[in-house]
């Protein structure tokens, strides 16, 4: 168990290090901006803390959750957040005239994506539940239709909510969708 | 159908970003899924004890008795998989599940010493004892995200779908080449990928969502909920009753087969065996195409049926979804077809990444580009290393199962690290695929060390073992050919420009 953690930690550490220091420009390490350095430090720190948290707990669920979650956060921070923080139009290395900001620079895009995927889930589940409760068929058929339609409803709602440009309006639509499901169910479970 | 300009842009953004962010994990899941299609054959291939030929007529009761004698105890719940050397799964006093197979020559239960098939099966839905439920849930959400990627991709490309079905111009270089490849494979594989994504999300997230149904729809009755959705009630293990004489396993099996003649039994479960509340459960497949999971539960004392799989709308829905996802129809040819479609799905993902990369120029591009090579080719290396390691490590070594998993992740991370520090990114593809080809190709040769039933063994051959050896060798040769083709292609064949 501990050997696994040790090797996994070392491997991931090397991975993060390798991505932080591209081979073609090794001096980039010292050329990182302050936010990038902070994010790298946060990633490494979170990773180290998770490994330390795991060590005394052996194979306990909490420790392992911390380790894997820490690794994920470290990777996300190291690879993703510096991109987020880079201002539009200054993407390094791109020829003049082709510089374009990554879409993630616009935080609303992320909010919209999360809203579309997660915000539509309650509505889809409640609508499926409502169909399973209210359709005029026998129980097995109602459950098959209600349960089976959840993912189709969810998918349709994701695509529709994604088309809404304003996060506030998207949030309102998610609420309305959930309220519609709630009305069909008659009460919230 | 023509989308408005704004809708096209929004759907294109969602398609590309969701695809790029989830694609590489899905690539590994897809490849692991390819292994899962041949799970039963791999289980036989990996364990030499399972390949032993039966020495003559052997009743189920005799197999069970030999197993229980070797085990030295009768667990309250025991899975029994009949065969020349029957397999057993049971819970010890601490509630920990154990698995082993009877070695009749030595009269002992040999504890599970190989789990390549189990590991690749679990990797397909990101399950591991170390990571538990949360990563498994992520796998379900990834399936849903993939469904979103497919839907938005279809909406974006709907207008030119007919031409994209066949327009592939291998003479082109750079983005048009990858774009053609992405669209052709994506269009051809769309039904397969859509079914896999939908059924995958249903299988993983369904049971979690079902918990919300238990209260309002089933008035809190979990057993009823299980009966309606699974087709059989939830099966608890009650405390053991008093010792009594029970019917033989062969007699019980005969009653099961009278009840469901089409049943192909995978395993039996014995609950409180030899007690007055003993239950005999036959688990298997049968009943139409795709084959559904069937349970017949009997009372061990009287032989009366106490529970059985129902067939109604809800359980039929589940039969279709699970049956389609696990290719429980059409036999081996469908599984081979599914494997090819799985590889096509992986290439669709990787080519999508290259299209995305070719539209952008910055350090994120370099990182993703290297990550795409490291994971794209590295996954093949890692699976090859896993296969080779399973044939190299001594069967008597207790730590071999953990070592195999470490070697898998080590190889994958090693390839990613190699991609990160390599000077010439364009040569990486053929180098890593060449390495993968080596690992896959030598595996059947190495397999002859542990088993004589394979391609390079002295015989007698076992069809499943021979099939796995041939399949692994074929994949190895194919990887080698792709590596050679990429090495000969000017610029290494992965130009993004």
Q: Can you describe what's shown?
A:
- The complex is a heterodimer of chains A (189) and B (497).
- Chain A is 71% helix and 0% strand.
- Chain A is an all-alpha fold.
- Chain B has helices at 5-36, 39-46, 60-71, 116-124, 133-157, 161-164, 175-188, 190-218, 222-229, 249-259, 313-325, 331-358, 363-376, 378-392, 400-421, 425-450, 463-488; strands at residues 77-81, 87-91, 97-103, 108-111, 264-271, 279-286, 292-299, 305-308.
- Chain B contains 17 helices and eight strands.
- The model of chain B has no long low-confidence stretch (mean pLDDT 90).
- In chain B, strands 4-3-2-1-5-6-7-8 form an eight-stranded antiparallel sheet.
- Chain B is globular, with a radius of gyration of 25 Å.
- The chains are: A mainly alpha (189), B alpha+beta (497).
- The interface between A and B is large, with 63 and 64 residues.
Number of strands of chain A: 0
Shape of chain A: extended
Distance between the termini of chain A: 41 Å
Mean pLDDT of chain B equals 90
Helix count, DSSP H or I runs of 4 or more residues of chain A: 8
| Major sheet size, sense and barrel closure of chain B | 8 strands, antiparallel
Going by helix content, strand content and strand pairing, the class of chain A is: mainly alpha
Strand order of the largest sheet of chain B: 4-3-2-1-5-6-7-8
How far do the termini of chain B sit from each other? 31 Å
Q: Helix proportion of residues of chain A, in percent?
A: over 70%
Approximately how much helix is present in the residues of chain B?
55-70%
